[in-house]
Design a protein that fits this description.
By secondary structure, the protein is an alpha/beta fold. It is built from eleven helices and 13 strands. The strands form four sheets. The protein has a seven-stranded parallel sheet with strand order 3-2-1-4-5-6-11, sandwiched between helices. Strands 7-10 form a two-stranded parallel sheet. Strands 8-13 form a two-stranded parallel sheet. Helix 1 links the parallel strand 1 and strand 2.
Protein backbone atom coordinates (compact mmCIF):
# COMPACT_ATOMS: atom_id res chain seq x y z
CA UNK A 1 0.00 0.00 0.00
CA UNK A 2 2.82 2.43 0.80
CA UNK A 3 5.30 1.61 -1.97
CA UNK A 4 8.92 2.68 -1.43
CA UNK A 5 8.37 6.22 -0.23
CA UNK A 6 11.03 7.47 2.24
CA UNK A 7 8.36 9.42 4.14
CA UNK A 8 7.54 8.31 7.70
CA UNK A 9 4.98 5.73 8.73
CA UNK A 10 2.44 7.01 11.26
CA UNK A 11 1.59 4.47 13.98
CA UNK A 12 -1.34 5.40 16.19
CA UNK A 13 -1.21 3.61 19.52
CA UNK A 14 2.49 3.15 18.82
CA UNK A 15 3.40 2.92 22.52
CA UNK A 16 1.00 0.05 23.07
CA UNK A 17 1.75 -3.65 23.01
CA UNK A 18 1.57 -4.36 19.28
CA UNK A 19 2.29 -0.77 18.29
CA UNK A 20 5.60 -0.61 20.13
CA UNK A 21 6.83 -3.83 18.52
CA UNK A 22 5.83 -2.50 15.10
CA UNK A 23 7.53 0.83 15.78
CA UNK A 24 10.72 -0.88 16.93
CA UNK A 25 10.74 -3.09 13.85
CA UNK A 26 10.24 -0.14 11.47
CA UNK A 27 12.89 2.03 13.13
CA UNK A 28 15.30 -0.90 13.17
CA UNK A 29 14.82 -1.23 9.42
CA UNK A 30 15.73 2.42 8.94
CA UNK A 31 12.19 3.67 8.43
CA UNK A 32 11.17 7.02 9.98
CA UNK A 33 8.18 6.62 12.31
CA UNK A 34 5.77 9.06 13.92
CA UNK A 35 3.88 7.69 16.94
CA UNK A 36 0.67 9.19 18.27
CA UNK A 37 -0.32 7.81 21.68
CA UNK A 38 -2.13 9.29 24.67
CA UNK A 39 -0.46 6.71 26.98
CA UNK A 40 -3.78 5.74 28.54
CA UNK A 41 -2.93 2.06 28.05
CA UNK A 42 0.43 2.33 26.28
CA UNK A 43 3.73 3.13 27.99
CA UNK A 44 6.92 5.02 27.23
CA UNK A 45 8.78 2.03 28.62
CA UNK A 46 7.51 0.05 25.64
CA UNK A 47 9.55 2.33 23.36
CA UNK A 48 12.69 2.25 25.49
CA UNK A 49 14.69 0.36 22.85
CA UNK A 50 14.23 3.17 20.32
CA UNK A 51 13.84 6.16 22.64
CA UNK A 52 15.85 9.10 21.35
CA UNK A 53 16.37 7.52 17.93
CA UNK A 54 16.50 10.25 15.26
CA UNK A 55 14.04 8.29 13.10
CA UNK A 56 11.36 8.32 15.82
CA UNK A 57 9.00 11.15 16.74
CA UNK A 58 6.49 10.63 19.56
CA UNK A 59 3.40 12.83 20.00
CA UNK A 60 1.47 12.50 23.25
CA UNK A 61 -2.13 13.06 22.24
CA UNK A 62 -5.29 11.12 21.53
CA UNK A 63 -5.57 10.81 17.76
CA UNK A 64 -8.75 12.90 17.69
CA UNK A 65 -7.03 15.65 19.70
CA UNK A 66 -3.72 15.74 17.86
CA UNK A 67 -2.93 19.28 16.61
CA UNK A 68 -2.36 19.49 12.86
CA UNK A 69 -3.42 15.89 12.31
CA UNK A 70 -4.39 16.42 8.68
CA UNK A 71 -1.02 17.98 7.80
CA UNK A 72 0.83 15.32 9.78
CA UNK A 73 -0.91 12.49 7.95
CA UNK A 74 -0.33 14.19 4.59
CA UNK A 75 3.41 14.07 5.25
CA UNK A 76 3.42 10.32 5.90
CA UNK A 77 3.69 7.43 3.46
CA UNK A 78 1.04 5.45 5.31
CA UNK A 79 -0.81 4.99 8.58
CA UNK A 80 -1.16 1.93 10.80
CA UNK A 81 -4.09 2.65 13.09
CA UNK A 82 -3.73 0.63 16.29
CA UNK A 83 -5.11 3.14 18.81
CA UNK A 84 -8.10 1.50 20.52
CA UNK A 85 -9.58 0.39 23.82
CA UNK A 86 -8.16 -3.07 24.50
CA UNK A 87 -8.68 -5.96 26.90
CA UNK A 88 -11.82 -7.77 28.02
CA UNK A 89 -11.67 -6.28 31.52
CA UNK A 90 -11.53 -2.70 30.21
CA UNK A 91 -14.27 -3.41 27.68
CA UNK A 92 -16.63 -4.83 30.32
CA UNK A 93 -15.97 -2.20 33.00
CA UNK A 94 -15.69 0.92 30.80
CA UNK A 95 -18.12 0.47 27.90
CA UNK A 96 -18.58 4.20 27.22
CA UNK A 97 -14.83 4.74 26.97
CA UNK A 98 -14.54 1.66 24.76
CA UNK A 99 -17.14 2.79 22.25
CA UNK A 100 -16.07 6.43 22.14
CA UNK A 101 -12.37 5.65 21.82
CA UNK A 102 -12.79 3.16 19.01
CA UNK A 103 -15.21 5.28 16.99
CA UNK A 104 -13.75 8.74 17.55
CA UNK A 105 -10.12 7.88 16.92
CA UNK A 106 -10.86 5.89 13.77
CA UNK A 107 -13.11 8.60 12.35
CA UNK A 108 -10.39 11.18 13.02
CA UNK A 109 -7.64 9.22 11.26
CA UNK A 110 -9.78 8.34 8.24
CA UNK A 111 -10.94 11.93 7.83
CA UNK A 112 -7.38 13.20 7.99
CA UNK A 113 -6.07 10.56 5.59
CA UNK A 114 -8.81 11.09 3.01
CA UNK A 115 -7.69 14.68 2.42
CA UNK A 116 -4.28 13.50 1.17
CA UNK A 117 -5.21 9.96 0.09
CA UNK A 118 -2.62 8.58 2.51
CA UNK A 119 -2.98 4.76 2.72
CA UNK A 120 -4.35 3.42 6.01
CA UNK A 121 -4.20 -0.03 7.61
CA UNK A 122 -6.95 -0.31 10.23
CA UNK A 123 -6.59 -2.82 13.06
CA UNK A 124 -9.85 -4.57 13.87
CA UNK A 125 -10.40 -7.66 15.99
CA UNK A 126 -11.58 -11.26 15.97
CA UNK A 127 -14.36 -10.11 18.30
CA UNK A 128 -16.36 -8.97 15.26
CA UNK A 129 -17.15 -12.63 14.51
CA UNK A 130 -19.27 -12.55 17.67
CA UNK A 131 -21.06 -15.76 18.67
CA UNK A 132 -20.41 -17.60 15.41
CA UNK A 133 -20.07 -21.35 15.82
CA UNK A 134 -17.97 -21.86 12.68
CA UNK A 135 -15.00 -24.22 13.19
CA UNK A 136 -12.79 -21.46 11.80
CA UNK A 137 -13.53 -17.85 10.91
CA UNK A 138 -13.16 -16.57 7.36
CA UNK A 139 -13.16 -12.96 6.28
CA UNK A 140 -16.36 -13.30 4.24
CA UNK A 141 -18.36 -15.09 6.96
CA UNK A 142 -21.65 -13.71 8.22
CA UNK A 143 -21.26 -12.18 11.69
CA UNK A 144 -23.37 -12.97 14.77
CA UNK A 145 -23.22 -10.29 17.46
CA UNK A 146 -24.86 -10.71 20.88
CA UNK A 147 -27.54 -8.42 22.38
CA UNK A 148 -26.78 -4.81 23.38
CA UNK A 149 -27.57 -5.25 27.09
CA UNK A 150 -24.42 -7.38 27.41
CA UNK A 151 -21.43 -5.02 27.42
CA UNK A 152 -19.09 -7.58 25.88
CA UNK A 153 -20.59 -6.92 22.45
CA UNK A 154 -20.14 -3.15 22.54
CA UNK A 155 -16.47 -3.63 21.72
CA UNK A 156 -17.25 -5.95 18.80
CA UNK A 157 -19.81 -3.52 17.40
CA UNK A 158 -17.53 -0.50 17.76
CA UNK A 159 -14.72 -2.26 15.89
CA UNK A 160 -17.12 -3.54 13.25
CA UNK A 161 -18.34 0.03 12.75
CA UNK A 162 -14.69 1.01 12.29
CA UNK A 163 -14.50 -1.55 9.48
CA UNK A 164 -17.67 -0.30 7.81
CA UNK A 165 -16.44 3.29 8.06
CA UNK A 166 -13.00 2.46 6.66
CA UNK A 167 -14.39 0.61 3.65
CA UNK A 168 -16.98 3.35 3.10
CA UNK A 169 -14.12 5.87 2.87
CA UNK A 170 -12.58 3.75 0.15
CA UNK A 171 -15.81 3.37 -1.83
CA UNK A 172 -16.96 6.98 -1.50
CA UNK A 173 -13.69 8.92 -1.34
CA UNK A 174 -11.17 6.57 -2.89
CA UNK A 175 -9.06 6.27 0.25
CA UNK A 176 -6.71 3.25 0.01
CA UNK A 177 -7.53 1.38 3.22
CA UNK A 178 -7.26 -2.23 4.37
CA UNK A 179 -8.51 -3.95 7.52
CA UNK A 180 -6.71 -6.54 9.65
CA UNK A 181 -8.74 -8.60 12.08
CA UNK A 182 -6.18 -9.34 14.77
CA UNK A 183 -6.73 -12.54 16.75
CA UNK A 184 -5.21 -13.19 20.19
CA UNK A 185 -1.69 -11.75 20.08
CA UNK A 186 0.75 -12.31 22.92
CA UNK A 187 4.37 -11.70 23.85
CA UNK A 188 6.71 -9.38 25.76
CA UNK A 189 5.25 -6.03 26.94
CA UNK A 190 1.71 -7.31 27.13
CA UNK A 191 0.19 -6.56 30.51
CA UNK A 192 -2.39 -8.51 32.44
CA UNK A 193 -3.83 -5.25 33.78
CA UNK A 194 -6.79 -5.35 31.38
CA UNK A 195 -7.53 -9.05 31.61
CA UNK A 196 -5.02 -10.45 29.09
CA UNK A 197 -4.79 -14.12 29.91
CA UNK A 198 -1.21 -15.15 29.14
CA UNK A 199 0.58 -12.41 31.12
CA UNK A 200 -1.78 -13.10 34.03
CA UNK A 201 -0.89 -16.78 33.94
CA UNK A 202 2.84 -16.12 33.66
CA UNK A 203 2.86 -13.65 36.54
CA UNK A 204 0.96 -16.08 38.77
CA UNK A 205 3.18 -18.99 37.76
CA UNK A 206 6.39 -17.18 38.58
CA UNK A 207 4.98 -16.43 42.03
CA UNK A 208 3.72 -20.02 42.43
CA UNK A 209 0.21 -18.66 42.95
CA UNK A 210 -2.97 -20.28 41.57
CA UNK A 211 -3.67 -19.60 37.91
CA UNK A 212 -7.25 -18.29 37.73
CA UNK A 213 -9.06 -19.80 34.74
CA UNK A 214 -12.37 -18.10 34.00
CA UNK A 215 -15.35 -20.29 33.18
CA UNK A 216 -14.82 -24.02 32.82
CA UNK A 217 -11.58 -23.62 30.88
CA UNK A 218 -12.71 -25.59 27.85
CA UNK A 219 -13.02 -22.47 25.69
CA UNK A 220 -10.26 -22.45 23.06
CA UNK A 221 -8.07 -19.75 21.58
CA UNK A 222 -5.16 -19.47 19.13
CA UNK A 223 -2.27 -17.37 20.38
CA UNK A 224 0.00 -15.61 17.89
CA UNK A 225 3.40 -14.21 18.83
CA UNK A 226 3.54 -10.42 18.53
CA UNK A 227 6.57 -10.59 16.24
CA UNK A 228 4.59 -12.77 13.83
CA UNK A 229 1.63 -10.37 13.94
CA UNK A 230 3.97 -7.48 13.15
CA UNK A 231 5.41 -9.41 10.22
CA UNK A 232 1.92 -9.92 8.78
CA UNK A 233 1.12 -6.21 9.20
CA UNK A 234 4.32 -5.21 7.41
CA UNK A 235 3.61 -7.54 4.50
CA UNK A 236 0.14 -6.08 4.07
CA UNK A 237 1.43 -2.54 4.46
CA UNK A 238 3.76 -3.04 1.51
CA UNK A 239 1.14 -4.74 -0.68
CA UNK A 240 -0.65 -2.36 -3.10
CA UNK A 241 -3.40 -4.92 -3.77
CA UNK A 242 -4.40 -5.07 -0.08
CA UNK A 243 -6.55 -1.92 -0.28
CA UNK A 244 -10.26 -2.57 0.08
CA UNK A 245 -9.81 -6.00 1.66
CA UNK A 246 -10.13 -7.58 5.10
CA UNK A 247 -7.52 -10.01 6.43
CA UNK A 248 -7.39 -12.30 9.45
CA UNK A 249 -4.06 -12.18 11.27
CA UNK A 250 -3.31 -14.82 13.87
CA UNK A 251 -2.20 -18.34 14.67
CA UNK A 252 -4.11 -21.55 13.96
CA UNK A 253 -2.58 -23.51 16.88
CA UNK A 254 -5.72 -24.03 19.00
CA UNK A 255 -5.57 -24.69 22.75
CA UNK A 256 -8.08 -24.63 25.60
CA UNK A 257 -7.52 -22.07 28.34
CA UNK A 258 -7.23 -24.88 30.86
CA UNK A 259 -4.50 -26.54 28.79
CA UNK A 260 -2.81 -23.16 28.37
CA UNK A 261 -2.64 -22.83 32.16
CA UNK A 262 -1.13 -26.31 32.40
CA UNK A 263 1.40 -25.50 29.68
CA UNK A 264 2.49 -22.32 31.45
CA UNK A 265 2.95 -24.21 34.72
CA UNK A 266 5.03 -26.99 33.14
CA UNK A 267 7.04 -24.69 30.86
CA UNK A 268 8.01 -22.40 33.74
CA UNK A 269 8.43 -25.30 36.19
CA UNK A 270 6.05 -23.63 38.60
CA UNK A 271 4.39 -25.06 41.70
CA UNK A 272 1.15 -23.25 40.90
CA UNK A 273 -2.24 -24.91 40.94
CA UNK A 274 -5.27 -24.03 38.79
CA UNK A 275 -8.41 -22.36 40.13
CA UNK A 276 -11.64 -22.21 38.11
CA UNK A 277 -13.48 -18.89 38.53
CA UNK A 278 -17.09 -18.43 37.30
CA UNK A 279 -17.53 -15.67 34.73
CA UNK A 280 -19.95 -13.72 36.92
CA UNK A 281 -17.25 -13.48 39.58
CA UNK A 282 -14.48 -12.62 37.12
CA UNK A 283 -16.44 -9.98 35.20
CA UNK A 284 -20.14 -9.32 35.70
CA UNK A 285 -23.42 -11.26 35.67
CA UNK A 286 -24.49 -12.19 32.14
CA UNK A 287 -20.97 -12.14 30.63
CA UNK A 288 -20.82 -14.15 27.41
CA UNK A 289 -17.67 -15.75 26.09
CA UNK A 290 -16.81 -17.15 22.67
CA UNK A 291 -16.24 -20.89 22.92
CA UNK A 292 -13.82 -21.02 19.99
CA UNK A 293 -11.83 -18.43 18.11
CA UNK A 294 -9.78 -20.01 15.35
CA UNK A 295 -8.95 -17.97 12.27
CA UNK A 296 -8.55 -19.07 8.72
CA UNK A 297 -5.41 -17.35 7.49
CA UNK A 298 -5.47 -18.93 4.05
CA UNK A 299 -6.24 -15.62 2.36
CA UNK A 300 -3.29 -13.95 4.07
CA UNK A 301 -1.01 -16.89 3.27
CA UNK A 302 -2.10 -17.08 -0.35
CA UNK A 303 -1.46 -13.40 -0.98
CA UNK A 304 1.62 -12.78 1.20
CA UNK A 305 3.09 -16.20 2.04
CA UNK A 306 2.66 -15.47 5.75
CA UNK A 307 2.57 -18.24 8.32
CA UNK A 308 3.18 -17.72 12.06
CA UNK A 309 6.58 -19.10 12.98
CA UNK A 310 6.62 -19.18 16.80
CA UNK A 311 5.32 -22.10 18.88
CA UNK A 312 3.22 -21.50 21.97
CA UNK A 313 5.86 -22.95 24.28
CA UNK A 314 8.46 -20.59 22.81
CA UNK A 315 6.03 -17.69 23.21
CA UNK A 316 5.67 -18.49 26.93
CA UNK A 317 9.44 -18.65 27.40
CA UNK A 318 10.05 -15.39 25.52
CA UNK A 319 7.28 -13.58 27.35
CA UNK A 320 8.42 -14.76 30.76
CA UNK A 321 12.07 -14.06 30.00
CA UNK A 322 11.47 -10.58 28.59
CA UNK A 323 9.42 -9.70 31.65
CA UNK A 324 12.25 -10.60 33.96
CA UNK A 325 10.20 -13.56 35.16
CA UNK A 326 12.80 -15.46 37.15
CA UNK A 327 11.41 -18.49 38.93
CA UNK A 328 12.01 -18.49 42.66
CA UNK A 329 12.27 -22.26 42.97
Amino acid sequence: MIGHSPSPILVTGGAGFIGSHLTERLVGAGRPVVVIDDFSTGSRENLAAVAGHPALRVLEHPVSGCPGLRELVAGCAGVVHLAAAVGVDLVVRSPIRTIQTNLDETEAILGAASASQTPVLIASTSEVYGKSQQPEFREDDDLLIGPPHLGRWSYACSKLTDEFLALAYMRERGLPVAVVRVFNTVGPRQTGRYGMVLPRFIESARRHEPLRVFGDGTQTRCFCYVGDTVEAILRLLSAPWAAGQVFNVGSTEEISILDLARLVITTLESRSTIELVPYDQAYAPGFEDMRRRRPSIEKLHRLTGFRPATTLREIILRTAGAGGCRMDL
